[in-house]
Amino acid sequence: AQRVTQPEKLLSVFKGAPVELKCNYSYSGSPELFWYVQYSRQRLQLLLRHISRESIKGFTADLNKGETSFHLKKPFAQEEDSAMYYCALSMAGGSYIPTFGRGTSLIVHP
Amino acid sequence: EAGVVQSPRYKIIEKKQPVAFWCNPISGHNTLYWYLQNLGQGPELLIRYENEEAVDDSQLPKDRFSAERLKGVDSTLKIQPAELGDSAVYLCASSVGAVNEQFFGPGTRLTVL
């Protein structure tokens, strides 16, 4: 069964510090991986997906199939980055169950 | 564009009562999802629709939960009877086909007393 693991429930950093939110997955096929974000009092929304290979709001994430990881990184955290971050896995093609991690709460202190 | 619309936003009921949630997806989105989110956890899929067909419902507790998506547009999720453990946030999302970006609604927070 596919699984997504976010080992940290809470990550607390100061403004300007680097941030890395960890995500590991277990799936034997070709995964589609996403990072979703939920800011305070807002709905869950897509931040980025691995196939787009974009940098969104300064965040990047690289799929490492060897380590089955999709860590989210940002070199200099900003206070407005404070939010809940969820890593999600979808299979490519066929019947599937999109799977979310439990989420990591990022708090960026001034 | 209003995005995914859900109602009600909050619902408080006593155990053993029935409850229903409604979702209207973004126009043109053929895939619709219902998720359950417990406190401190990520969303867990209950059921996924492709148009009006339920294609992933293995995680829906069918003894008390039911869902429908008549005409392949809006959808209703029902619980009958509700139990204390059903207290959670119920999220609806939609997308253009599976494996693409999902757009989420604001959720319905259910409290069962």
Provide a concise account of the structure shown.
By secondary structure, chain A is mainly beta. In chain A, 0% of the residues lie in helices and 45% in strands.
Structure description:
The complex is a heterodimer of chains A (110) and B (113). With 110 residues, chain A is mainly β. Chain A contains no helices and 11 strands. In chain A, strands 2, 5, 6, 9, 10 and 11 form a 6-stranded mixed β-sheet that branches. The relative contact order of chain A is 0.35. Chain B contains no helices and 11 strands. Chain B has strands at 5-7, 10-13, 19-24, 31-37, 44-50, 53-56, 65-68, 75-79, 88-95, 103-104, 108-112. In chain B, the strands form 2 sheets. In chain B, strands 2, 4, 5, 6, 9, 10 and 11 form a 7-stranded mixed β-sheet that branches. A 4-stranded antiparallel β-sheet of chain B has the order 1-3-8-7, with no helix packed on it. The radius of gyration of chain B is 13 Å and the shape is globular. Chain B starts with a strand and ends with a strand.
Break the fold down into its secondary structure elements and pairings.
The complex is a heterodimer of chains A (110) and B (113).
Chain A: E1 3-5, E2 10-14, E3 19-21, E4 24-26, E5 31-38, E6 45-49, E7 60-61, E8 72-74, E9 83-91, E10 99-100, E11 104-109
Parallel strand pairs in A: 2-11
Antiparallel strand pairs in A: 1-4, 3-8, 5-6, 5-9, 7-8, 9-10, 9-11
Chain B: E1 5-7, E2 10-13, E3 19-24, E4 31-37, E5 44-50, E6 53-56, E7 65-68, E8 75-79, E9 88-95, E10 103-104, E11 108-112
Parallel strand pairs in B: 2-11
Antiparallel strand pairs in B: 1-3, 3-8, 4-5, 4-9, 5-6, 7-8, 9-10, 9-11
What is the average per-residue confidence, as pLDDT of chain A, rounded to a whole number? 91
What structural class do helix, strand and pairing data of chain A support? mainly beta
Globally, the shape of chain A reads globular
For the termini of chain A, the CA-CA separation is: 41 Å
Number of strands of chain B: 11
C-alpha termini separation of chain B: 36 Å
